[in-house]
Structure formats: structure tokens, C-alpha cells
Amino acid sequence: MTRVLAFDVNETLLDLTALDRPFEELFGSAASRAQWFSQMLQLSFIGGITGSYVDFTAAQRAALHMIAQREGSWLNREQVDATVALMNSLPPHPEVPAALARLAATPLHMVALTNSVQDVAEEQLRNAGIRHVFHRVMSADALRRLKPAPEPYLAVATAFNVHPGDVRLIATHSWDVTGALQAGCKAAFLQRPGAVLSPIGPRPDIVAGNLEELADLVIARDVR
């Protein structure tokens, strides 16, 4: 029985395409924004694999310098600070507020589960106008074990005193979905443009193209 919905935040709920113009101004192409986010994830994951922990904010800063170096340019501290700060004021995807409100009206507990550091996560959700729908905001940074390591997903189960199988992760990242399923949780994949599931490993039982469609499926399957 599903009792807790755990939502990834960046890209799943919040729209990173809002950063396309600032990245175009910095590097001459909006495509550098996606490259930066991928580089930041790689740095974070390498830190976890090698036992040299790197928090999300530090990884974002380092990834900016790497993208600049790759482009043959250089960023000063003010440019890096200003760019990273933009993560705190991302807008939600258009359908997110209404879909979250529908899910919040069910008996299911709602938690935001993110790799962002705690204060950034709280500010992101407040600025997006959706903090109030969540019972808790949980940062994997508190565990120094970022998703897709099992500890963040299991921490949600512990926080709500439920079995891992009673937790359903909702995310637009295949690696996040895989992490939750491998930890014994359920998952729902939000197939935003460009997002695809891994063809190997466990598969989620819910896949939808936007959060409204996903909310319909969750309510039909998980709400008693």
C-alpha cells in the first residue's frame, strides 16, 4: 500500500529551461545549460562512488567552471554566484501546482526528496509557491549520500514510519527511479521532453507525460 509520495524537485517539479537565456548569455548557447546540469550530476555521483562527498551546490559551481573551460572562456566569482543563485527561483512546470494540490488532498503524505542542500530546497519550493503542499522537505545532503544511493529513499520510509514499499518516488530522471526501485520503493516516471527510462533494470509501474496525467494514475492506483 502506498502511503507516502516522495517528489524529486529539480526538473521534475521545477523548470530548468528558465536558465536557458542566462546560459546563452554566458556561453553563447542555451544548450550549455543541459551540459552544465549533466556535468554537475556527474561530479556529485563521482563524489558518492569514490567516497569524496560533494554537495550539490559545490558541484554546480565546479561544473560551471568546467563548462567555461571547455568553451575556452573564464567566469569570475560574481558570475558563478549569480548563476548558481538562479536555481533558487526556478518556476514550476505549468501543470505542477494544480496536480500537487490534487495529490495533497488525498490521504497520502507528501515529501519533497532532493539532492539540493536543505536551505536551497526550502527556498526553491517557497519561491515556486508549492512549499505548503509538502509535509516535509528532505535533503539527501543531510545523509551525505545523494540519490540514487538507497539511503535517501529509506530515510523517507523511516521518517514516516512506513515500509520502503509504502513509498512511491516521482521523478523525471531514470537514475532516480532506478535508485528508488532498487531500495525497495515504488516509483512513477514523469516522462518530460527528452527524458527516457533505462532499458535495463527494474521498471516503474506508472509512466506519464506530465504531472496531471501522473496524478490521475497515482490516485487510481494508490488512493484507497
Automatic annotation (TrEMBL):
Q: Which residues form a coiled coil?
A: none
Alphabetized, the UniProt keywords read: Hydrolase
Q: Does the keyword Hydrolase apply?
A: yes
Family, according to the entry, reads as follows: Belongs to the HAD-like hydrolase superfamily. S-2-haloalkanoic acid dehalogenase family.
Region forming the signal peptide: none
The molecule here is called: Haloacid dehalogenase type II
- Which PANTHER family does UniProt cross-reference here? HALOACID DEHALOGENASE, TYPE II (AFU_ORTHOLOGUE AFUA_2G07750)-RELATED, HYDROLASE, HALOACID DELAHOGENASE-RELATED
What taxonomic ancestry is recorded?
Bacteria, Bacillati, Actinomycetota, Actinomycetes, Kitasatosporales
Pfam families, per the entry: HAD_2
Which Gene3D superfamilies does the UniProt entry name for this protein? HAD superfamily/HAD-like, Putative phosphatase, domain 2
NCBIfam families from the UniProt entry: HAD-SF-IA-v2 (TIGR01493), HAD_type_II (TIGR01428)
